[in-house]
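thought: user wants a sequence for this fold. calling inverse folding tool.
action: design(structure=
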C-alpha cells in the first residue's frame, strides 16, 4: 500500500469515527429531551407525571395534554375533599332530606365505590367515615373508642344509607352516615389522567401520585417501567423492584398515616364491619389494570389480611397481583404474595 492509499484509508477511518461520535452525541441529546416531566401538589400529595415524546413538535401537544391532566386532578380535589363543606362530599355529608346534585365524576366514583364494597365483602367501604371521625376524636382525647361508641355507629355504616338517584343526585337516609373518598380518589384521578394522555395519543407515560402509580407502555429508554415497592419495616429500603407496563400499583398501610393513642399506633384503615383499626397488616401492595381498582383493593387487603386478601386477588385472575407484610401470632412481620406477583419481578 502506498502513502497516498494509507492517507485515504486514514481519512476514511476518521470520518467514520467522527460520524459515530456525532451520531451518539446527537442520539443522547435527543434522548435526554424525550422525557417531559411535570409535578404539582394536589390531593394532599406530590403528583409527578413523565411523558415520553419522540419529536420536539410533540412538546406543545404534551403541554396541552398536561394542562387537562392538572385540571382534572384539581377538579377531583375540589369536589371530593371531605375537609371542605362546599365540596360534593361535604354537601352529601351535611345534607338534610333534599338529595344533593353532584358532579358527574363524583357520582361515578361513589357508584364504583359501592361496587367495590360488594367485591371486597365489606372490607372497603366509603361509608366508614363515622368510624374514621370517631377514631380522630379518640386520638384527640387520648382514649380508645369504646365498644359502646362503636356499636352506636353501626347502623350508619353501609351503602344502604345512601341512594343514587337520577340526574346525578345522591340522597342520605341516615343523618349519622357520611362518606370518605380518601381511599380511592387518588386512584380514580390517576386513571382519569391516564385517559387524557392516551386520548392525546401518548403511549409511554407514568403518573405517580404519592407512590400510587400507573405506567403505560415503556419508559423513555424503551424498557419496562421500574417501580419500587417500599418495605414498611425499613424506611428508605425497597422490598422489591417491579418491571411493569400498562398496570397500576398502589400501596396501603400503617407506616405513614396512623392514629396514636396512649403511645400506641393504630392503622388509619378501619374495618367497616367492626369499627376497629386494621392493625394486622403493615402494608398491602396491589397491581391491577386500573389505579382505581388497585387503590380500593390495597385498602381492602389491609382489612382482609393475607389469607382472604390473596384469595380475593387470585379470584380476579388476569393481571391482578399482591404482596403483603403482615404480623404473625408472635408479632413478627411476614411477607406473602399472590401467585402472579413473581412475574412482575422479571425484567
Ligand atoms: P388508603 O391510604 O388508600 O388505604 O386510604 C386510607 C383512607 O381511607 C383512610 O385515611 C380513611 O380516610 C379511609 N378509610 C379507612 N378505612 C377504610 C375502609 N375500610 N374503606 C374505605 N376507606 C377507608
Ligand atoms: Mg386505597
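)
observation: tool returned 347 residues.
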Amino acid at each position: 500500500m502506498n502513502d497516498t492509499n494509507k492517507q485515504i484509508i486514514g481519512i476514511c477511518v476518521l470520518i467514520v469515527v467522527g460520524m459515530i461520535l456525532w451520531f451518539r452525541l446527537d442520539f443522547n441529546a435527543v434522548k435526554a429531551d424525550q422525557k417531559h416531566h411535570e409535578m404539582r401538589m394536589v390531593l394532599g400529595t406530590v403528583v409527578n407525571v413523565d411523558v415520553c415524546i419522540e419529536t420536539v413538535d410533540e412538546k406543545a401537544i404534551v403541554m396541552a395534554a398536561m394542562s387537562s391532566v392538572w385540571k382534572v386532578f384539581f377538579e377531583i380535589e375540589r369536589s371530593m375533599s371531605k375537609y371542605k363543606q362546599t365540596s360534593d362530599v361535604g354537601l352529601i355529608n351535611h345534607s338534610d332530606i333534599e338529595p344533593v346534585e353532584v358532579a358527574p365524576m363524583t357520582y361515578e366514583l361513589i357508584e364504583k365505590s359501592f361496587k367495590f364494597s360488594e367485591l371486597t365483602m365489606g372490607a372497603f367501604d366509603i361509608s366508614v367515615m363515622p368510624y374514621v371521625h370517631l377514631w380522630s376524636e379518640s386520638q384527640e382525647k387520648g382514649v380508645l373508642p369504646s365498644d359502646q361508641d362503636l356499636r352506636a355507629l353501626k347502623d350508619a355504616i353501609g351503602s344502604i344509607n345512601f341512594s343514587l338517584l337520577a340526574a346525578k343526585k345522591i340522597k342520605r337516609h341516615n343523618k349519622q352516615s357520611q362518606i370518605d373518598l380518601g381511599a380511592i380518589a387518588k386512584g380514580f384521578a390517576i386513571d382519569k389522567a391516564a385517559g387524557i394522555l392516551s386520548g392525546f395519543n401518548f403511549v409511554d407515560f407514568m403518573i405517580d401520585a404519592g407512590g400510587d402509580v400507573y405506567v403505560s407502555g415503556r419508559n423513555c429508554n424503551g424498557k419496562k417501567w421500574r417501580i419500587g415497592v417500599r418495605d414498611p419495616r425499613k424506611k428508605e429500603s425497597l422490598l422489591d423492584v417491579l418491571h411493569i407496563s400498562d398496570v397500576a400499583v398502589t400501596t396501603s398501610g400503617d407506616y405513614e398515616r396512623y392514629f396514636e393513642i396512649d403511645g400506641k399506633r393504630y392503622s388509619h384503615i378501619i374495618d367497616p364491619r367492626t369499627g376497629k383499626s386494621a392493625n394486622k397488616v403493615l402494608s398491602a401492595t396491589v397491581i391491577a389494570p386500573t389505579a382505581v381498582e388497585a387503590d380500593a383493593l390495597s385498602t381492602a387487603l389491609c382489612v382482609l389480611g393475607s389469607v382472604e386478601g390473596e384469595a380475593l386477588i387470585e379470584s380476579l385472575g388476569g393481571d391482578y397481583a399482591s404482596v403483603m407484610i403482615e404480623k404473625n401470632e408472635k408479632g413478627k412481620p411476614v411477607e406473602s404474595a399472590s401467585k402472579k406477583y413473581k412475574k412482575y419481578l422479571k425484567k
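thought: summarizing for user.
answer: Here is the designed sequence. Confidence is low (pLDDT under 50) at residues 14-30.
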